[in-house]
Amino acid sequence: MEFNTPDWDKTNNGLIPAIIQDARTKNVLMLGYMNAEALTKTTETGKVTFFSRSKNRLWTKGEESGNFLNLVSIKNDCDQDSLLITVNPVGPTCHTGTDTCWNEVNDSNFGFLSELEATIEQRRTAADGEKSYVASLFGKGINKIAQKVGEEAVETVIEAMDNNDELFLYESADLLFHYLMLLQAKGFTLKDIEAELMKRKK
């Protein structure tokens, strides 16, 4: 595995901070410290190993719990004095039993699309069909939602064959918005689609 070697002369007592990030969700799981020996063992075994300041020895995460951090990649920062290590975690990362050391759930987040999903859910459950387009469409049932997805898909295809990029993006946004509604109507979210696509990865 290729990465820039840390500048150990900059370290405090030969230790360098190592930020641990989930390779799939991109969530930060924990912060630990490594010395040169821990970094070498990590690259050799494929399991993240730290130097434990409390135990005063090398410590492979998961050596007792089985909740290993399987190595994906290592990056050294621009000053060569901290590491970003991406991993595939096995089980919760924190010793308290939580996914991260900040007591967060290590779920996928799709940025604004996740916010939009939450807004759709909020308006659907509020069920104010007079004020909310989302609520009114849900009130008409899944067949109407599915019909809208079909209509928006046709309009997107039509605009794709034209030369007006602005209209294509507009219709694409409409399609995605209504598709998110259809997913919720069927009891699914983008995370379910992500999981299905991941099963197909080869």
Automatic annotation (TrEMBL):
It is an enzyme of class 3 (hydrolase). Its main location: cytoplasm. GO terms for molecular function: ATP binding; phosphoribosyl-AMP cyclohydrolase activity; phosphoribosyl-ATP diphosphatase activity. Residues 30-102 form the Phosphoribosyl-AMP cyclohydrolase domain. Pathway: Amino-acid biosynthesis; L-histidine biosynthesis; L-histidine from 5-phospho-alpha-D-ribose 1-diphosphate: step 2/9; Amino-acid biosynthesis; L-histidine biosynthesis; L-histidine from 5-phospho-alpha-D-ribose 1-diphosphate: step 3/9. Keywords: Amino-acid biosynthesis, ATP-binding, Cytoplasm, Histidine biosynthesis, Hydrolase, Multifunctional enzyme, Nucleotide-binding. Residues 1-112 are annotated as: Phosphoribosyl-AMP cyclohydrolase. Pfam families: PRA-CH (PF01502), PRA-PH (PF01503). Signal peptide: none annotated. It is found in: Cytoplasm. Residues 113-202 are annotated as: Phosphoribosyl-ATP pyrophosphohydrolase. One of its GO terms (cellular component) is cytoplasm. GO terms for biological process: L-histidine biosynthetic process. It catalyses: 1-(5-phospho-beta-D-ribosyl)-ATP + H2O = 1-(5-phospho-beta-D-ribosyl)-5'-AMP + diphosphate + H(+); 1-(5-phospho-beta-D-ribosyl)-5'-AMP + H2O = 1-(5-phospho-beta-D-ribosyl)-5-[(5-phospho-beta-D-ribosylamino)methylideneamino]imidazole-4-carboxamide. Its EC number is 3.5.4.19, 3.6.1.31. In the N-terminal section; belongs to the PRA-CH family. In the C-terminal section; belongs to the PRA-PH family. This is Histidine biosynthesis bifunctional protein HisIE. It comes from Maribacter litoralis. The lineage of its organism: Bacteria, Pseudomonadati, Bacteroidota, Flavobacteriia, Flavobacteriales.
